Amino acid sequence: MATELITTSNSDDGSLSIVIPKAQVHDFIEKLVKSRRIISKNFDYNFVCGKNEINDICSSILYRIKEQNNVSNHSSEVSVYYDDGSRRTYPDLKSFLVFEDTFNMIANQVSIDFIFFMSFPEFSGDAPAPEKQNVKLSFRTKSQSFDDESYSPGITIDISTNRFTWADDIINVASNKINTIFTKIKLYQRIFDSKYIYMYVIMTVSLITSSAFSILIRNKTISHETIEQLLKLKSTSISDIDTKINAILGTYRPRETSHFEIIAIVFLIFVITSIFAGRIYLRPIRVLTVNDYSMNEFKRTERRRKIFFYPFLIGTASSLVVAIAFSASKILSYI
After folding, report:
1. Is the pTM of this model over 0.90?
2. 223-249 pLDDT, tens per residue?
3. Contact residues for 252 (Cβ-Cβ < 8 A; gap 6+)
């Protein structure tokens, strides 16, 4: 686009005015529309993703592109990032698929970069010139930052192109394939994955602590005051003792902890332990098993989660049942 065709001017209020000759408006809009942009889509999914799953998604994208377009050449590069910050790069997708990775680190990102030189059908009848299109597919298990850009966990496809309809079609193909392999994250998983869940844990702990502390202090204070009053009755008559005891009982009558308070405390304990159990077992799962170490670590983590979760849940549920049964027995005894 010829920049000399555009005239700019600054006004006193700081606004910028752009003047384009009328004869050049069509060319200006056409070139603006055909400028390259990045079309992206992020898939917030649970995934346990290995080389087979990555190959299936890439194969569906490659098949769609070669089916619709005349691809004169294409290349690929795969980068695997590990939790210690290191990276391993493969010259193409096939090398990544066949290589036996024995690196003793957990993989937390796999990025596949495709470069295509392809031609699109033209209605003019002229032989179309090949155009460069970039497709990048990324799998991330956690939030990361690269080149001053932050990326959230999930699956992302980025297409740098000026063929936006074609890019939307490729994204739909990838989306359909991903839907058949992985599952979307449920609402309860989003809740337990949220950092605000810790706020509810702290609030629940505060309620339990304050309730238990107030009950203990109240009973201790009443007992101490009652004993002190009784110790002052050494030199009084029996009738005076009886009068003073009745006065003490009327003034400092100990208030027993109600069944409702017991149930409330047990219920709060059940809530907080359930939240911790949920953080262990109900959070979204995003795992890359592209090497043996990552696969084995995932299996160990799953075993630990089950070992901690089920006793946690059974114990807290049992405590709630016991509290309800205790309360019911007390209520029946008053009937």
Report:
1. no
2. 555 555 555 655 555 566 566 666 655
3. 222, 225, 226, 229
The tokens for 188 are 């309860």
Q: Work out the number of other CB atoms within 10 angstroms of the CB of residue 176.
A: 10
3-state secondary structure 301-319: HHHHHHHHHHHHHHHHHHH
